[in-house]
């Protein structure tokens, strides 16, 4: 009787030449509008650095703390104006695109005002905390004939972007399972009141990227339910539960997520997608350290090197895609309407973690707390 669990029957893989997968952000060729950025908080650094790298024209930066707006202006776009009232920025005729970065509750009235003024809008993620509000904003943008997109920047992380393009091309057939396994050190938030008060920091503030990516990778397959858990252990240094997991059930597939945000030694980030015709796998020490993609197909395997990183490609890609969509008179891939699929998954996961119950996708339309 064999005791090798069938390992001796595993076929040797043959190296093959990789197909061309175009996963880097596309830049607009002719449309270079004047951009206004609202909110000069921490995340604005990544936005402005990316826009400077792309050669985009940021003309005005607004923040209610004028010194913060001026500091961002001086660091990234010295020729821009700094103002302390977002309504002044929105009121300027030369501004065609507005990047809105404040937190969700503060963001909604700003997005509404920008759309009403006929501006195209890039909204920071998560788009909204209430899908009914999101639907209203989407409808308002349609009436005004402006584009409303979401800064769901993980879509342009090199490994996720490669996987999305490969799956969309049919390279591995129909997706049957996706496994996200992340162990990383987020103990730097210890003592930071803004982060410490977010109970579902892992599943919501962080995990929203993975729920969005899951929705993208699964394409037209419709999720049925989510079961999620969140666990806090006594020795962890910050208040929100550091360990979380989620299982998204589809009629003939599963997506599984495993998170540990308190991994001080041996960080690792692994994504595996299994399809009916092949498997994709990427492994690295962290979000910005995914340097190659492993691809296993029926006729052989290959390793594709990856260029760029999440914080570079991601923030470039979200704005670039919006500008390309305006230029080409089409809907941006990161449109607000496209973003709601991931929000439904995330909202169901938070409800499941709170109730210890399986939650149907679509049953939770908004969040009272997170």
From TrEMBL:
> EC number(s)?
1.-.-.-
Q: Coiled-coil annotation: which residues?
A: none
Q: Where is the GFO/IDH/MocA-like oxidoreductase domain?
A: 161-281
Which Gene3D superfamilies does this UniProt record tie to the protein?
Dihydrodipicolinate Reductase, domain 2 (3.30.360.10), NAD(P)-binding Rossmann-like Domain (3.40.50.720)
* Domain Gfo/Idh/MocA-like oxidoreductase N-terminal intervals: 34-151
Pfam families, sorted: GFO_IDH_MocA, GFO_IDH_MocA_C3
Which InterPro entries does the record cross-reference, listed alphabetically? Gfo/Idh/MocA-like_OxRdtase_N, Gfo/Idh/MocA_oxidoreduct, GFO_IDH_MocA-like_dom, NAD(P)-bd_dom_sf
Top-level taxonomic group: Bacteria
Mind listing the GO molecular function terms for this protein?
nucleotide binding; oxidoreductase activity
SUPFAM superfamilies membership: Glyceraldehyde-3-phosphate dehydrogenase-like, C-terminal domain, NAD(P)-binding Rossmann-fold domains
Ordered alphabetically, the record's keywords are: Oxidoreductase
PANTHER family from the UniProt entry: CONSERVED EXPRESSED OXIDOREDUCTASE (EUROFUNG), CONSERVED EXPRESSED OXIDOREDUCTASE (EUROFUNG)-RELATED
Q: Report the family membership.
A: Belongs to the Gfo/Idh/MocA family.
Q: What is this protein called?
A: Putative oxidoreductase YdgJ
């Amino acid at each position: 009787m064999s005791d090798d669990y069938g390992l001796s029957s595993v076929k040797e893989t043959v190296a093959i030449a990789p197909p061309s997968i175009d996963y880097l952000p596309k830049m607009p060729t002719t449309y270079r509008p004047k951009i206004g950025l609202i909110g000069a908080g921490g995340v604005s650094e990544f936005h402005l650095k990316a826009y400077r790298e792309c050669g985009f024209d940021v003309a005005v930066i607004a923040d209610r703390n004028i010194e913060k707006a001026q500091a961002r202006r001086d660091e990234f776009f010295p020729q821009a104006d700094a103002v302390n009232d977002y309504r002044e920025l929105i009121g300027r005729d030369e501004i065609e695109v507005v990047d809105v970065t404040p937190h969700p509750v503060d963001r909604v009235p700003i997005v509404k005002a920008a759309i009403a003024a006929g501006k195209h809008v890039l909204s920071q993620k998560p788009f909204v905390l209430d899908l009914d509000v999101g639907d209203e904003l989407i409808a308002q943008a349609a009436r005004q004939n402006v584009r409303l997109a979401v800064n769901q920047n993980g879509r342009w992380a090199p490994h996720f972007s490669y996987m999305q393009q490969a799956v969309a091309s049919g390279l591995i057939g129909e997706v049957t399972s996706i496994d996200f396994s992340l162990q990383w050190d987020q103990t730097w938030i210890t003592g930071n009141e803004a982060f410490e008060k977010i109970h579902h920091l892992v599943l919501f503030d962080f995990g929203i990227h993975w729920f969005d990516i899951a929705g993208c990778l699964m394409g037209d397959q419709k999720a049925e339910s989510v079961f999620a858990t969140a666990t806090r252990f006594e020795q962890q240094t910050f208040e929100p539960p550091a360990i979380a997991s989620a299982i998204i059930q589809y009629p003939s597939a599963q997506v599984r997520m495993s998170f540990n945000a308190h991994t001080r030694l041996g960080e690792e980030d692994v994504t595996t997608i299994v399809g009916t015709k092949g498997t994709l796998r990427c492994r690295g020490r962290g979000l910005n350290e995914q340097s190659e993609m492993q691809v296993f197909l029926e006729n052989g395997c290959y390793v594709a090197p990856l260029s760029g990183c999440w914080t570079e490609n991601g923030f470039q890609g979200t704005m670039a895609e919006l500008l390309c969509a305006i230029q080409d008179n089409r809907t941006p891939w990161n449109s607000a309407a496209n973003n709601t699929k991931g929000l439904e998954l995330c909202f169901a996961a938070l409800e499941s973690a709170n109730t210890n119950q399986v939650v149907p996708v679509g049953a939770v339309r908004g969040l009272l707390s997170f």
